[in-house]
Every structure is written in structure tokens, then in C-alpha cells.
Amino acid sequence: MTEETWKLLVADKKRRQQEAIPRDWRIPPLPVEVLDVRAVPETSGLLSSRELEITDTRDVNILLGKLATSEWTAVEVTTAFYKRAIIAHQLVNCLTEIFVERALARATELDEHLKRTGNVVGPLHGLPVSLKDQIRIKGLEATMGYASWIGKFSENDAVITQILYDCGAVPFVMTNVPQTLLWSETYNYVYGRTCNPANRSLTSGGSSGGEGALIGMKGSPLGIGSDLGGSVRYPSTYNGLYGLRPSYGRLPYSGCVNSLEGQDSSPSSLGPISGSLGGIQTFMRAIISKEPWLRDPLCLRKKWDEDAYRLSEHGNGGKLCFAIMWDDGDVVPSPPVRRALETTKKALEAAGHTVIDWQPLKHQELYEHLVSIWMAGALSDIGATTAATGEPRLTSMSPSESALVDTGVHYTAGVSAYELWQVQKKRIALREEYLAYWQASAERTSTGRPVDAIITPVAPTPAPPHGMTKISTYTMVWSVLDYTCCAFPVTTVNPALDGKRPPHTFLSENDKENYELYDPETFKNAPVGLQLVGRTLEEEAVIAMTQIVDAALMQMASS
Question: Is 129 in a helix, a strand, or coil?
């Protein structure tokens, strides 16, 4: 194949995408100097006051309540979010597949069913849901950022898509990802770069960066991403959202396209992203209620556990003991992230909970083992895909190819099966050691239980400038341990509060580079969030404990 092969495919795909945007929903381009574009939908003149009211409704459960009572129809809710999604796309480049007529036809069917029967189709009736561009929708492409997959139309819906339809949802857009998904930013040769709505000079995160940017613009009430090493948590945190990384197999993955398929030692998980923590809970409960293990053999047979959500194993949600990890032993967080940790500690203590310190255990070793598992065959996996068209493999997310950033993940030629087994064997030993370490924390708590949850940064800085994301240890360690995590927003960068501090004794070269990267004016307006880490398959408890943390933060902010 010649270089022209993949470029011709990209040109055709971009043309088709542009033609799918209704002309009445187009806006004039803004100067690149305009960085914060979150208010543009309100001033664009394209959204009516009712459409603004609909899309400004962050609480998914309020949306669902109004849809169930026909106060708002599925058609008008879908139209409102679609218009805002298209506006968002023109500002931050977040969408891939646009199919307005199909989504509105689905919404019309739902309205007719409710009018005819008086009953909703399911627990997500009428809710527009955005999907990361790896979750197949029948008849549409899921390129996953590969030019080589343009023109491959999905013959079937992914299992999660099927269940969304069964729940009454309206899948309405697909969102941008980086080529291969194996990045913490979002850029590919097909659709280009997705930017952060709060500051377009910063990344939206990755690999679910299109979801993060779209929901950050209020262009979708809830979306589905995936998380291999932080790909739900980065976009959630970088865009001021909530995002759940469930343990492997809690949600069905069957029918999605992916990188590293067949690698099942440390696979990725699908997870919801939303501006509404209640929406995260409602989504998980709805999907699990449809018994996805009957459609996906790798989905765990585990029903929604209401006792676990009531925190029956965590003192019934009374006085909890949280641990805060101030740094991971390799990189010290920048001032706004440190402030978020301090704020969260104060809020929890004011709410009557105990907070202790958490010392990281072999986090760098855990990180290196996960990288080794991925790199055992990643180069061959990517090469097998790109060879079809001659599409080059991206080696940086940097806007300037001359300014490559060492991401710390280096592709290797691969290893033998036996060598991989030794890495996996060591990973098991590390997981056993961390489990014992967590259990032993009971000696340091006042509850008689081990620490209920750990609160840590998602990244050592807020969303970095494009091409500058390097540190991923804060998320990847929990992935290799398969611990359930939930990202939550805390604050935004305030140069008056988050000034650069004097240099400290650097823990590593990464720490030095992270310190040098931070400048409060560069990161101005960037959302700042954290993650709550529970144990394996503790989705219900992690959601409930994140709600407790969120309520404590809101209470402190209002007092």
C-alpha cells in the first residue's frame, strides 16, 4: 500500500463526517486565542431557553424523571443534547460518528411507546448516551483512531449497545480517541486532536478524551468510555467530571473493538463518565439489571448488591476511615493537586470521618509490570492493523513532531510466552502483597476495619498542554491491581492559590520534569480532581463512598 491509501481514506471520512453536521447547527470558527469555550453554547443563539434548561441539567436522575413523566419528550431531549454536542464538536473536536436522523427516530419510537402504554421502555428511557469510538453500533464505523479501519461498518451492536437499547437509552454520537487507545491524550490521523473545553491549549485526556470533552461541554449527560490504564479517569478528571473504572468483567465488553485483544492478564474495562455521580450509579444498576453475563461469557455473574451500596462491609456508611496518598514515591503532585488533597481531607474530617496517610507499596514496580504485559505484543498488534494501508504508527501526541515527549512507555519487539508468564506470575505475587498490606492497615484505623478507601491523585498535574502527558503511574497501579476506582471533581486551578513552590528534593527525573512543567498561568481554569480507590469488584461501595466524599466537599464549599 502507498502513503496515499490511508490519506485518501481519511479525506473521504472527514468529508462524510462534515456532511453529517446539519447546516443550521454550524457556528463560525472562534479565534485560537479563545481558550475557555464552555460558555459558547449559551451565547451561540442555536439553543432555545428550553434546550439550555435541558442540557444544563447535570443530574441524570432529574432528566430521567422528566422523561418518564413526559414533561420532556425523548425527541426534545435528544435534539437539545445533539445540538449542543455539535456545537461542542466545532469547538473542541470531540465527535467521530454523527447520525442525527437515526437517533431522533429512536427517540420518536420511545415517545410513542410511552404515550401508547404509559410505561417507560426501561430505566434509562429517553436518555441520550454517547459512546467511545470502539463501542460498535450496527451499520456505523468504529475506527478507534485507525485510518486502516475506515470503511469497516459494524455488522452488529456491541453487547453494551444492545443493553442500552433494552434500557430505553438513545445512543446518539460516538466520540474521539487516540490511535491505538494506548495514550493519555486524544489525537489520531483520522479525526485530529480533541481539546479541553476549559482551556483549549490543554489536553482533554485519553483515551476516552472525546467523551471527557463532550460531557465537559454539557453535550451529553452520560457517556461510556473504557479504562486500561486510566482512560476513563484522565478525561473525567481533566474535564471536571465523575468517572468509574470498574474491575475487569463487571460490565460487558463483547462486541467492542480494542487494542491488545487476547491479552487477558490485565484487560481494560468499560466505565461510565458523567457530570452526575447519581447518573453513574443509575447507569451501573441499569446495565447490571439486564444480566449481561448471559450475552458476554467474560462478564461476571454478579448482580447489583444493594447491601454493598449501603456499605454493609464499611460500618454501614457511618464513621469511615479514608487514607490519602500524598504522592506515589516517584512524582510529587503540583500545587493545585496538593490543594485538592488537602481540601478533601478537611472536608472529610469536618464530616466526622477519619483520614490517615497512605504510603505507596512498590508502585513503580507495579507500573513496570503492567507496561511489560502490554508491550509483550503491542508492537505486533498495532503493526498488523496499520500494515493494511501503510498508515504510520503515532509516536507522540505532541503538536510538533520535533518536540517528542518521552511518555515512559517504550515499545519493544515482544517476548516469548514463557517470559510473559514470568511477568504475570510476578504480578500475582505483587497483588497478594498489596492485599496483605491493605488488610494490615486495620492496625492504624480507629474503626477496627482496614482502610475503607484510598484517595489519590489521578495525575500529578491538571490537564497538561498537548503532547506533554507523561506520568501515568497514579492510575496504572490500580489497574494492575484491578481495584475499582471513581474519579471525582474537587476544584479548578487558581493562580492566586496555586503558585509555583520552591524546588524540593526531587524523587526522580520524572519528578523534576513534572515540577518544571507546572506554571499556574499555563494551567489556568483547568479542572482538578482526584480518585477514590476501593478493592476488586467493589463498584457499589466505591460509588457510595464517592458520594460521601462528594457530599462532604459540597457541604464545606457551602459553609
Answer: strand
194-240 per-position pLDDT tens digit: 999 999 999 999 999 999 999 999 999 999 999 999 999 999 999 99
The neighbouring-strand residues paired with 223 are 130, 273
Q: Which of 154, 184, 208, 231 is catalytic?
A: 231
Question: Which entry of 207, 259, 266, 268 is annotated as an active-site residue?
Answer: 207
Q: Residue 312 burial by CB count (10 A; 0-12/13-18/19+): exposed, middle or buried?
A: middle
In tens, the pLDDT along 92-127 reads 999 999 999 999 999 999 999 999 999 999 999 999
**Which pLDDT does position 1 carry in this prediction?**
55
* 380 has catalytic annotation: no
Distance of CA 371 to the CA centre of its chain: 20
Mark whether 132 is an active-site residue: yes
* pLDDT tens sequence across 310-343: 999 999 999 999 999 999 999 999 999 999 999 9
pLDDT in tens, 370-422: 999 999 999 999 999 999 899 999 988 888 754 445 555 577 888 899 999 99
Digit-coded pLDDT (tens) for 126-143: 999 999 999 999 999 999
341-380: buried (b, 16+ CB within 10 Å) or exposed (e) per residue? Answer: bebbbebbeebebbbeebebeebeebbbbbbbbbbbbbee
Which residue is associated with the grid cell 459494524? 154
Active site residue 236: no
First to last CA, the chain: 64
CA 174-177-182 angle, to 5 degrees, is 145
Beta bridge partners of 48: none
Whole-number mean pLDDT of the chain?
96
Reduced to 3 states (helix: H, G, I; strand: E, B; else coil), residue 180 is coil
Return d(Cα 422, Cα 469) in angstroms, integer: 30
- Written as nine digits, the cell of 185 is 491524550
Based on the number of CB atoms within 10 Å of its own CB, is 62 exposed (0-12), middle (13-18) or buried (19 or more)?
A: middle
Please choose, from the candidates 455, 524, 527, 458, the residue with its C-alpha nearest in 3D space to the C-alpha of residue 491.
527
CB count within 10 Å of CB 319 equals 14
User: How far is 209 from 196, CA to CA, in rounded Å?
Assistant: 9
Question: What pLDDT, on the 0 to 100 scale, is given for residue 402?
Answer: 43
Residues in the chain: 559
Task: Choose, from 83, 132, 470, 524, the residue flagged as catalytic.
Answer: 132
| SS3 state at 114 | helix
The secondary structure of the chain in percent helix, strand, coil, rounded to multiples of 5, reads 40, 15, 45
pTM score over 0.70: yes
Q: Which runs of consecutive H residues, i.e. helices, occur in 219-317?
A: 233-238, 277-289, 306-309
- In the beta sheet, which residues pair with residue 532? 455, 486
404 vs 398: CA distance, rounded Å = 6
How many CA within 13 A on the CB side of residue 90?
20
